[in-house]
């Protein structure tokens, strides 16, 4: 049996394979491409060794094909996979504990093809509803237990409010799936808020416990690198350079923790390489007293050029409505109306994505989301007055290599709402810069030049991705899946300082969820990003006993 024998007449088809083989994937895609009765979308999910842990979505040249490589043991991968599997290949699997998890994920008419199953595995799969043919190499799922129906895919029309990194990525990933998108922006052009800086840096995050922010940032960083290549590439369609990033250790304790991470052997050199002080100093040409991490694939990019590349990739499915000023949202039957302050309808669609940062809490439907604005002032410096850097350099602050004669240093984290450049913030940036390059004269007496932006930040410093919760209707809800939502209203918010790399994967996650596709992240990470998490936290906090 092959997938082609059962995919005819289906809108989408998902193949799961316990062993990734690039040639087999290429052959499957070619068979799909040649079949006039093929499903509109093909999803391939496979276990892969020799990759960084987690789920990896690999962009394809054809937007109708997705490839997810899961670097995890079979049982763990199935437990974290959100997908409806139509065809499963089992190659050399061990034990029988996977049977229940696989049965949870398969479609009602799913096909299984296996090699070398033992009697215990056949029995376990049969107990879950798989009916085998005589040689036990193939089976069909025939359980009478009802399958949980997938939500219906909404009409493929959306309004995205906010044309920064979050909004432009949302528009592009929806357009790639055939959606008609109207991008609404109050400013006269894209990337005029937090996404308007001259340079943003991209690099992964490391931690000894491989926590949620680390896993999310790793997945997003690796996806972003591949995604940017698919829309033209850094240094080509996108202004910037994949020059590498050197992150200096803060102190001896940080260096010791970094050595422990490096010793664990889970970070290949192309992803992250620990350098002791002599190595780092030789590479950088500056002091690095406690050593440093080298992220060879990292670098910098101008966020506005990333936004432009994403909008260009949308093609004719994108309609831009810029310079509209502040807008309001109104539900009218099955559609949302986006109105200018004079009452005129700017755009309408069944689905709306709020992607305008902290300004989104001005909409009543998002007002109870605990988002705050953190002021960040970046300093622009004449590059001729600074060391010529071959890499982005960072520690508590960052310094970019020169671009058009300007190097960027920053950025501050301030709790006020002052949009103007100020000398005290510049002094803070310059002092950090001087410590970074071990030169007390670097940037001294520089003219007040730079930019102020406001980061949108959630209390847990994680983004909000998905359908927005209806706080007032939540009642005594205890589970994320039971939290009521505002129909057709979604958020891509809270990107803090990592919008450059979080935006593509978060947009992909939202688009995949709207289309009922396999999700590109582990279920635990998906839940950690759900905006409804704040409904449950508010309930827990309300129940917590008050101290006397």
Could you explain the architecture of this structure?
With 548 residues, the protein is of the alpha/beta class. 27% of the residues lie in helices and 27% in strands. The chain contains 13 helices and 28 strands. The strands form five sheets. The protein has an eight-stranded mixed β-sheet with strand order 3-4-2-1-5-6-8-7. The chain has an eight-stranded mixed β-sheet with strand order 14-15-13-23-24-25-22-26, sandwiched between helices. The radius of gyration is 25 Å and the shape is globular.
Short description:
By secondary structure, the chain is an alpha/beta fold. 44% of the residues are buried.
Strands in their spatial order, largest beta sheet: 3-4-2-1-5-6-8-7
Mean pLDDT across the residues is 95
Secondary-structure content class: alpha/beta
Oligomer: single chain
């Amino acid at each position: 049996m092959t997938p082609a024998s059962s995919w005819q007449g289906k809108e989408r088809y998902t193949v799961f394979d316990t062993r990734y083989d690039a040639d087999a994937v290429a052959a499957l895609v070619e068979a799909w491409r040649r079949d006039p009765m093929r499903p509109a979308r093909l999803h391939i999910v496979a276990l892969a060794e020799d990759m960084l842990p987690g789920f990896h979505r690999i962009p394809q040249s054809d937007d109708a094909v997705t490839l997810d490589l899961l670097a995890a043991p079979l049982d763990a991968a199935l437990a974290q996979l959100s997908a409806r599997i139509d065809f499963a290949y089992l190659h050399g699997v061990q034990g029988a504990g996977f049977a229940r998890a696989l049965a949870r994920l398969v479609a009602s008419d799913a096909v299984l093809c296996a090699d070398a199953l033992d009697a215990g595995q056949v029995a376990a799969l049969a107990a879950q509803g798989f009916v085998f043919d005589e040689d036990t190499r193939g089976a069909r799922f025939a359980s009478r237990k009802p399958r949980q129906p997938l939500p219906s895919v909404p009409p493929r029309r959306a309004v995205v409010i906010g044309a920064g990194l979050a909004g432009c990525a949302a528009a592009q990933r929806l357009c790639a799936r055939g959606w008609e998108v109207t991008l609404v922006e109050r400013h006269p052009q894209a990337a005029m808020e937090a996404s308007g800086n001259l340079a943003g840096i991209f690099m992964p995050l490391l931690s000894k416990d491989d926590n949620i922010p680390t896993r999310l940032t790793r997945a997003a960083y690796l996806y972003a690198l591949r995604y940017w290549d698919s829309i033209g590439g850094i240094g080509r369609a996108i202004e910037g350079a994949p020059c590498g990033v050197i992150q200096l250790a803060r102190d001896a304790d940080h260096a010791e923790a970094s050595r422990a991470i490096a010793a664990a052997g889970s970070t290949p050199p192309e992803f992250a390489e620990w350098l002791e002080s002599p190595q780092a100093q030789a590479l950088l040409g500056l002091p690095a007293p406690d050593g440093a991490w080298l992220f060879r694939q990292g670098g910098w990019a101008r966020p506005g050029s990333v936004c432009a590349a994403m909008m260009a990739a949308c093609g004719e499915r994108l309609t831009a409505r810029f310079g509209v000023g502040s807008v309001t949202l109104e539900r009218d039957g099955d559609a949302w109306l986006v109105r200018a302050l004079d009452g005129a309808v700017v755009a309408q669609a069944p689905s709306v994505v709020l992607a305008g940062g902290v300004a989104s809490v001005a909409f009543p439907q998002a007002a109870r989301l605990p988002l705050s604005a953190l002021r960040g002032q970046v300093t622009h410096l004449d590059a001729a007055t600074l060391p010529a850097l071959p890499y982005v350099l960072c520690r508590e602050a960052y310094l970019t290599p020169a671009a058009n004669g300007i190097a960027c240093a920053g950025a501050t984290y301030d709790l006020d709402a002052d949009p103007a450049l100020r000398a005290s913030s510049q002094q803070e940036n310059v002092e950090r810069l001087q410590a970074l390059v071990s030169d007390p004269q670097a940037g001294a007496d520089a003219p007040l030049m730079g930019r102020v932006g406001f980061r949108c930040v959630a209390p847990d410093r994680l983004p909000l991705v998905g359908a927005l919760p209806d706080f007032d209707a939540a009642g005594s809800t205890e589970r994320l899946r039971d939290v009521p939502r505002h129909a057709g209203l979604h958020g891509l918010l809270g990107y803090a300082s990592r919008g450059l790399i979080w935006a593509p994967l978060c947009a992909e996650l939202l688009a995949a969820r709207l289309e009922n596709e396999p999700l590109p992240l582990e279920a635990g990470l998906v839940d950690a990003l759900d905006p409804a998490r704040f409904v449950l936290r508010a309930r827990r906090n309300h129940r917590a006993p008050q101290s006397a």
